[in-house]
Amino acid sequence: MENIMVEKLNRQMDGSEWSWSNLNKLCWAIGSISGSMSEDQERRVLVIIIKDLLSLCELKRGKDNKAVVASNIMYVVGQYPRFLKAHWKFLKTVANKLFEFMHELHEGVRDMACDTFVTIAQKCRRHFIAHQPGEASPFVDEIIANAESITSDLMPQQVNRFCEAVGYLISAQLNTQTQAMLISGLMKPYNDEWNSLVQKVGENINVLEDLNVVKQLGNILRVNVSACGAVGKGFISQVGNIYIDMLGLYKAVSEIISSCVARDGAIATKYANVRAMRTIKKEALRLVDTYVKHCDGEVAAVNENMVPPLLEAVLADYAQNVPPARDAEVLKTVNTITGALGGLMTDKIPIVFDSLFESTINMINQDFTDYPEHRLAIYQLLQTINQKCFSALLNLPPQQFRFMVMSIMWGFKHTHRDVADVALTITQDMINNFNMCDRSISDAFFKAYFVELLNEIIVVLADNEHKSSFKPQYMVLARMVRLIDSNQITAPLFDASQPENSGLDNGMYVRQSIANLLATAFANLTQRQIE
């Protein structure tokens, strides 16, 4: 295998098999066998391959050819973390070479350099934060100190990748104080720019009419999101620095967007400045969402310090906006918070319902296709509330509770499998939750909704357009039938005061209901076939 790889590479060198496609295939093959050789063999082969690839890069003329070779060098190096970990000087040389590539005029090379740096940072992070022999300080300190110079030629999305990579390095630092200092160093230039822009906005709100200012603010928030996802919960020191200003900015751009929509109608959501301001809102929500996903052990602090001002800023804004101006990220972020905080969110569910649920359902209940992000997100939020804060649902007003149940039925009628499956999961979870409630509560629920739910489940089961969700459909049906067969529902599901219902029990009544439904839906079936 070693000889084959080296021979193939030599043919690239002498030009007999040179082509972008052949080189890409060869380097992919070299990368794919990482870990299959002994450490000594891997070291020997990799040294030969890297030397030949560097020579090939020198030999080739034309920036596109050089870019292809350079990209393949970066790919191969990134696939061999064991070798990099065992040879610190080589790892440092590779990192510095990646930083050089980040200044290349060919944008594809810069993209590949950033992606490879992320890969190496994920796999070799501890080596960057350790104090290596012969080094004055950990290499991560040098990277952060030179970050502005390294990223000077990168596009905003490439800067995000660079900061993500450095975030992975910082996450390996277990000392909380040292980690906070590293985060502060990485984010300092962005914080300085942020503070300057926020101060200008505070002095004159009309600054937000400048599209460049709005884009700069959005880019800074994106950098925070990228770094936060990599660092994890230690990023709270940075989140705390900008959180209040970020929510203030959220409210400010929301007011501007609302005034534009009020003046020009829904078409205003298509304006360039409005889209840029909505980016600020979305990135602010993504930052909260990203941090909360990593906040293990800090849920009490999140509940006390982050959630109340966030809900104040976003809920009323979402409810009052026209549908095209509502951001699905609001639903996703509240879903993440509810999942992380669990029972701590129970007291906040009523206002969440008032602001988010009905307004979103009214956006999507006209068809099965509009607002796909909102459509899935609202059902995922309802699923999380049902799992984590079920007691809050018991306190909903009857009209609102019925609206919720009807919305769940609407959900599993979707032909979009993701939405239908979530709605069916909610149905089964809700049935199980009510079955474990006090008997008076469960009897009231089943008496009001059991037969209606059963009928709707059978309708979608018999509909060929919903066959992709057959498994969760029959699981819900099986659970409902099991409740009847095991007499776990004690209250009569029918009007026992009617003379024609005398002698009925729930099992007989449900069988009659199913038979009547099938006879109505399938006129070609005989009574014997239905039975």
Main attributes of the structure:
single chain; about 525 residues; mainly alpha; about 75% helix; about 0% strand; globular
Shape: globular
Count of DSSP H/I helices: 25
How confident overall, as mean pLDDT? 89
C-alpha Rg (nearest Å): 30 Å
Structural class: mainly alpha
What does this structure look like?
The structure is a single chain. The chain is an all-alpha fold. It has helices spanning 2-13, 20-32, 39-59, 63-78, 81-86, 88-101, 107-129, 139-145, 147-150, 156-171, 176-203, 211-231, 236-264, 272-293, 299-320, 328-341, 349-364, 372-388, 390-394, 398-411, 417-435, 439-461, 470-485, 506-521, 527-530. The longest helix has 29 residues, at 236-264. It starts with a helix and ends with a helix.
Summarize the structure.
By secondary structure, the protein is mostly helical. The protein has 25 helices and no strands.
